[in-house]
Predict the structure.
Amino acid sequence: MINQFRTSNPINAVYLFAYTFFMRIAIFAELPSKLNFEFLEPYTRFFIQIPIGNDLSPTTNIVLAALIVYLQAILFNLVINNHNLLSKPGYLPALFYITGSSLFMPFLILSPALVCNFLLIWVMDKLMKIGKSQNAIMLMFDVGMIIAAGTLIYFPFIVMLVMIWLSLLLYRSFSWREWVSGLVGFVTIFLFLGVFYYWNDSLGSFYRIWLPLANKFPSAFKIHYNDYLVLVPVALIMVLAMIQLRENFFRSFISTRKAFQMLFFMFLCAVVSFYTKPNFRLYHFLLCVPPGAVLLAYYFSNATKRWFYESLFLILVVATQYFLFV
């Protein structure tokens, strides 16, 4: 199966569509009686009313989520291939994006984090263009606005602001205009939001939007380890990918090296951003899927022992399905 997706054959897009729904067999087999979907943060719903969410039936919710994941996987695949992050273009990024988006039951339904992945993929694309741009001011401004739009949907997305400055450190020499432009783009969106709150005599509510940023990072975690055993094969593949990446690191293009470093920091930002939402749900970690899927795809793109990497992928798929059912 891996060899099939290593190629750029258009028929793979059809296989991916079928694979997307195959990875959701467990939730279709036992449909929840009701699914809630809060598309926007409360401070956004204050001035934007979108009549979707709780009116959707469970089947519609799950099918829409699957279609969104499939569309995101195709877009993600285009971005990774356009920036030549793998040894050759193919459909492996899309394959592992869909696989990563199917690891846990909360990943299979509509969620604000899932919607934000459209924006995260867009941010990834723009950040990887920094090194090729003569002037990154407008690029950073656009990224700031995209992150602001994501924050309107899901507040933890605000932590991606850090990626603006980390990416500039990786790709460019210091220019204060470039460092400020991303923040200006972000503030531009929230300036309009603040004006709206002011017109409605609700500036106190606008101030409370930012209080989660002062949350203390939790020092203790309650983890049911049996719920996360599916991550064992994922972790194994990631370790193998990092070993492979280290071996090829200095033989890769400079832009490729910097892109992987940037994606590593993006993965970390996605993980730690959960602290900004005290009642966060497991679907939050969908934000880790785009940068994580690149690393998984990198290993399978460079692996040479077919019996081993095909078996490893089969173990990953079977483990995912097993833990979804049980």
In short: Residues 186 and 309 are 42 Å apart (CA to CA).
